[in-house]
Amino acid sequence: MNAPKPLYEGKAKLIYPTDDPLVLRAYFKDDATAFNAQKKGSITDKGEINCTVSSYLFRHLESDGIATHWIDQPSPREMRVRAVKIVPLEVVVRNIAAGSLCQQTGIPLGTPLEEPLVDFYFKDDALGDPLLTRDRILLMKVATEEQIDQLKTLSLMVNKHLSAFFKTCDITLVDFKLEYGLDSDGQMLLADEISPDTCRLWDTLETDPERRVMDKDRFRKDLGSVEEAYRRVLARVMAHC
Ligand code: TMP
Ligand code: ASP
User: Fold this and answer.
1) What predicted TM-score, i.e. pTM, was given to this entire model?
2) What count of other Cβ atoms lies within 10 Å of the Cβ of residue 58?
3) Which of 92, 118, 159, 180 most suits a substitution to test ligand 1, by most atoms within 8 Å of the C-beta?
């Protein structure tokens, strides 16, 4: 039998159709990219680790009443998800200054933010995923006023639940990126993945600014021991879910 053709190939995942038009299969790859795919590599077993971490976290959020696209994880690298039309926004929630926030504002790395900051980026590789304003989102008709408010409220709820959960794993949730989509009933579902690729996770038990990094910054900044860090996140998440 011929392998089914993917509907879509992203940088970290392949999306396949299933017999049910309302259900898709996401296959997690080991491919790793950074800086809008200017840096490319591979992280051994990343597909399995990210699929499993995401599955645990989506299930955890579902049990807290947050609607996600997650259905189940039929194999280590595969997740069955509800089909959604992705809203082309990347919603980033920040608890501690890091990454582009430091580069663009001069706020020193590691500064705790008084309130979580929610940033919206346009999901468009050709444009380099630019930071948007509320007015630009409305101008571009990427989302309505109500949807912007809904995405912010949902993302802050996710932040509350995930920050508390990661704390039990001795991990500080510094910041993370979420994506959402609308299902066939028009319901807004949390989609994509939540993993060491899409979060900044610092080991609460480490103070050294390099050793504490348990996420894709190890790949972005060539800090080494990338697989080990991803494995440690998986082990702690599994132990606490
Ligand atoms: P940033 O500091 O580079 O804006 O990243 C903020 C968070 O978003 C960080 O946890 C990493 C995540 N992220 C992605 O998941 N995908 C991306 O393409 C980028 C740029 C960041
Ligand atoms: N997703 C980004 C890319 O386009 C990488 C990153 O997470 O920094 O390569």
Assistant:
1) 0.97
2) 23
3) 92
